[in-house]
Amino acid sequence: MYRVLLPVDEDEERASRAAAAAANLPCADEAVEVVLLNVFEEFEVADGEWESISSEDIWDEHSYPDSVDAVEERLEAAGVSVTRRREHGDPAEEISAVAEEIDADNVVMGGQRRSPAGKALFGSVTQSVLLDADRPVTVILDE
């Protein structure tokens, strides 16, 4: 089985492009397993006048964004085996840690073009994963 880690944030369009790439792998309906990963980003807000609030206070491991449901439906419709998981922490660190934990054969991520000249500049999470990865990372850019 070829295991793909597919991180999904709240951008459904970007996640759908990455899902399409995973679904188009050779023999995807027979030999590919996709693990959808949503990371709830860790934060803490403190104000001298108010109590501080941290992401730990509102973290819910079962509360996935709609984008995860949409991508899961798309992959299952293509016959791809899908599991999902949700983590809490720094997105780039969690993506790398989960990729290692599940021994992913590939990490497939959506990226975006940002410069007017058309150069692909990756967001900080994508860039961090690319730089720290010890396995193949496929970045699917917008058109």
- Looking at how many chains there are and whether they match, the oligomeric state comes to single chain
Low-pLDDT residue spans: 116-120
> Could you give me the name of the CATH homologous superfamily?
HUPs
- Let me know the largest β-sheet: 5 strands, parallel
Strand order of the largest sheet: 5-2-1-6-7
Compute the separation of the termini in Å.
30 Å
**Secondary structure tally: strands:** 7
CATH class designation: Alpha Beta
| Portion in beta strands | 25-35%
Structural write-up:
- This protein is an alpha/beta fold and 143 residues long.
- It has a single domain (2-140), classed as HUPs (Rossmann fold).
- It has helices at 12-23, 28-31, 55-58, 66-77, 91-101, 124-132, and strands spanning 2-7, 32-41, 44-47, 50-54, 81-89, 106-110, 137-140.
- The strands form two sheets. It has a five-stranded parallel sheet, sandwiched between helices. It has a two-stranded antiparallel sheet with strand order 3-4.
- Helix 6 links the parallel strand 6 (106-110) and strand 7.
- It is globular.
- The two termini are 30 Å apart.
- 31% of the residues are buried.
- The model is unreliable at 116-120 (pLDDT under 50).
